């Protein structure tokens, strides 16, 4: 498959996808413009999925109200284990581009505002990352079927991440280098931790706290990148990010930051230790 010029959706063209720092496997070389058009076409389907997801939450809680909790330990080990492996793989395939560009002169600007030195491997794992947010909705099924407490942060985060990443892929956000790579890293640790817990491996409480701290740090970096690109766009310097994505990103990352701070304080300093999820 020949290298592609990819439209960024605002009338300009992205540089050719290159392979200077990582080899893209054959399965990672795909029709990027076509994939973006498909996600744009199926955006209403993604929104409908979110509405159905919320409806199933309430229906599931009602259905489980008079039933005993399911154990599902073996299934949970497999589920979290597969997501951990997926996240680790995604991290190894996206980090090379992130590091290569950020370590160059003007790396912050190039990584956040341009697709310079872009690679098919990163593009492929950005697409899979977006679609994986549909799969991760399944996390909630385990919470409901095991009759655990479902907090607002859990389902709000699932919905907004799905919609945000979906729209970001449609517009082919260069900031995926930051947002996606960070999320792969945090999820690699988080799902590994969940897998060990499901296997009844004794895990230090400090590790759970570390995962939450990393999630908060992820939100801080997300806020910073959005503020940075907002200032770049406002100053008239070219930046391949739609202003609507920047404003939406600021709003969503802002709410994540507040909600994760609240969860952190309640889980580790206010709530009973035995109840920490």
Automatic annotation (TrEMBL):
It is found in: Membrane. The keyword Transmembrane helix applies. It comes from the Eukaryota. One of its GO terms (biological process) is fatty acid elongation, polyunsaturated fatty acid. It catalyses: a very-long-chain acyl-CoA + malonyl-CoA + H(+) = a very-long-chain 3-oxoacyl-CoA + CO2 + CoA. It holds the Pfam family ELO. It is a multi-pass membrane protein. Coiled coil: none annotated. Keywords: Fatty acid biosynthesis, Fatty acid metabolism, Lipid biosynthesis, Lipid metabolism, Membrane, Transferase, Transmembrane, Transmembrane helix. Its main location: membrane. This is Elongation of very long chain fatty acids protein. It comes from Allacma fusca.
